[in-house]
Amino acid sequence: MVAPMIHLLAVSFSSTEFVNAKQVYFWPRGLNFQVYDSIFQQKKLWKSLGVSVYITALGTLIALFFTSTIAYALSRPQMPARKLILRAVVLTFVFSVPLIPSYLLVRTLQMDNTLWALMIPGALGAFNIIIMKTFFQGLSAELFDAAQMDGCSEYGIFARIAIPLSMPVIATIALFHAVGQWNSYFSALIYIRTKDMYPLQVLLRNMVMEGQVQDSMSASEMASSFTPEQMKAGVVLFATLPIVVVYPLLQRHFVKGAMLGSLKE
Q: What transmembrane ranges does the database entry give (predicted)?
């Protein structure tokens, strides 16, 4: 995983002649900062970065709300039709939603060409629900009984006891969903028609796969300062860095939450 990133970093910082000669591997040759000067000056990249940050942050909060509420409800034995709902959730492991019905539903709800189409349809995942449900079931039942004896409602138990004790698994689910949301581009290709609403990964895809590596620069200006390969390498690193920075902050909770959410004595 690290080797390709080091290679891209070396390519983005190398001089044009060494990159064209295929002489750059894991160490830059002839320092060149023109790639990142161009990236920082491109408004499209910053606008797409803002869109990605917005849908990742808000989409993760929406996913955590729906996942935690349904997982807590499924973990309570007194919930009506609990087994039937759980079977319906597990069924989605086998049969995923087809693309055309999903698109028609989003269009009927008038969410197409809006950022809600990138956050709402993927807010719930069976895997995340099962992990969080298993975690809730592992919490001490005596705490819930004591809270009920003190007059606390189910909403109070959920907000004051279950959620504070579930921060490791919440951090785990948040990381799962945030990484998936950040790297997602297919939904935007289907639902988004306005280019100003493209997330960063769609812009990155267009640059890497379709060769759209220049924004306001002419081809001659770009050729004199850096190559298209260098621009692609710089944009890939630009799109990867934010989520790489977030991951170490949640790694401790991630390991603990994944273990506690998947195992039960």
A: 45-72, 84-104, 116-136, 157-179, 231-250
Domains of the chain and CATH, by start:
2-8+15-24+31-262 (1.10.3720.10)
The residue among 118, 101, 112, 107 whose CA lies nearest residue 62 is: 118
Radius of gyration of the chain (CA): 23
Q: Quick check: 12 and 230 in contact, CB under 8 A?
A: yes
| 44 CB neighbour count, 10 Å cutoff | 17
Residues 6+ apart with CB under 8 A from 169: 131, 132, 135, 257, 260, 261
- Rounded to 10 degrees, what is the CA torsion of 210, 213, 216, 219? -100
pLDDT along the chain (265 residues), means of 10: 83 75 76 78 84 92 93 87 88 83 90 90 88 86 82 85 86 86 88 87 77 49 63 81 76 58 45
Give the containing element (helix H, strand E) for 99.
Answer: helix 99-108
- Taking only the tens place, the pLDDT of each residue in 14-58 is 777 777 777 777 887 777 777 777 778 778 888 888 899 999 999
Q: Where are the alpha helices (DSSP H) in the chain?
A: 2-13, 16-20, 34-41, 43-75, 82-94, 99-108, 126-137, 141-149, 154-157, 163-165, 167-183, 186-191, 200-210, 219-225, 228-262
* DSSP string for 36-52: HHHHHH-HHHHHHHHHH
Neighbours of 110 (CB within 10 A): 10
